[in-house]
TrEMBL record:
Signal peptide: none
One Pfam short name: DDAH_eukar
NCBIfam families cross-referenced by the UniProt entry: DiMArgaseDdahMtb (NF045659)
Name of the featured protein: Amidinotransferase
Superkingdom field: Bacteria
Transmembrane segments: none
Coiled coil: none
UniProt GO BP: L-arginine deiminase pathway
């Protein structure tokens, strides 16, 4: 019998930025999940969002709240509005005109909070929708939303090596629908979302990754948030939750059924505010 110890996982306190779905609706379609002919229950969306926020709070995390803006129904997906690493902020530039003004709301919030290093990007990037942070690398998705030029801009701004990954399935239009960072350099991903070359890159960098299936991914299981130990993910992704448990993580299923109607779930609603890393000054 093969025995291997399941590692003990440790949670570290995080700071998240979220935006309530006060004006949530599906009136346009910019990804295959969005069907404007189907009704959404905004009150239920709000209750699901509050439940997610309360779970973060009960795990000891901090949640900052961005004021929602009327006319921006996708603003609940706060992960798309910026990328914050080492307390420095790279703003977003949305691919679709319907979401463009969200980028301004995020930039204003960071400036009002006193963040000093706030950069308005030149190229299209949808924040943590396409950018993920591991201890060694920044992972960057392209193919549907973020521009490959934004990957170079990401690397130059943060001074961390960027690994470009090509997304090939329109259902997984953002990196955070196909891959989640668990802890350090540990990730979980769905290989079928990536081009052959990107799959090989992922195998090389993350030989011990937890692998997900299309079934996990269509339940939005990769749209997960991990604090090093707890993994918050949509409750429908049960097979993935079991696999994460076998790797020592503690999965926590949450109901995000209304938000999934717009093509987003746990991670999309959660932008991580990373205050400090190893102090290697970019402008040194
Ligand atoms: N981080 C995410 N994947 N966010 C989901 C964004 C959903 C939004 N309706 C869009 O298509 O842009």
């Amino acid at each position: 019998m093969r025995t291997h110890a399941v590692p003990e996982r440790t949670a570290t306190p995080r700071r998240y930025l979220m935006c309530p779905p006060t004006y949530f609706e599906v009136t346009y379609s910019i990804n295959p999940w969005m069907d404007p002919t189907k009704p959404v229950d905004r009150e239920l969306a709000l209750a699901q969002w509050e439940d997610l926020r309360d779970r973060y709070l009960s795990l000891g995390h901090t949640v900052e709240v961005l004021d929602p803006v009327p006319g921006l129904p996708d603003m609940v997906f706060a992960a798309n509005g910026a990328t914050v690493v080492d307390g420095r902020v790279l703003g977003a530039r949305f691919a679709n005109p319907q979401r463009r003004d969200e980028a301004t709301a995020h930039l204003e919030w960071f400036r009002a909070q006193g963040y000093r290093d706030v950069h308005e990007p030149e190229h299209v990037n949808e924040g943590e929708g396409d950018f993920a942070v591991t201890s060694s690398w920044l992972l960057a998705g392209k193919g549907f939303r973020s521009s490959p030029f934004a990957h170079a801009e990401l690397q130059e701004f943060f001074g961390r090596p960027v690994i470009s990954l090509e997304l090939v399935d329109p259902r997984y239009y953002h990196l955070d629908t196909a891959l989640a960072v668990l802890d350090g350099d540990e990730v979980v991903y769905n290989p079928s979302a990536f081009s052959a070359g990107s799959r090989a890159v992922l195998r090389r960098l993350f030989p011990n990754a937890v692998l997900a299936t299309d079934e996990d991914a269509t339940a939005f299981g990769l749209n997960a948030v991990c604090d090093g130990r707890h993994v918050l993910l949509p409750q429908g992704a049960q097979a993935l939750a079991a696999r994460l448990r076998a790797h020592g993580y503690e999965p926590i299923g949450v109901d995000t059924s209304e938000l999934i109607k717009a093509g987003g779930s746990v991670k999309c609603c959660t932008q991580e505010l990373r205050e400090r890393g190893e102090e290697i000054a970019v402008a040194a």
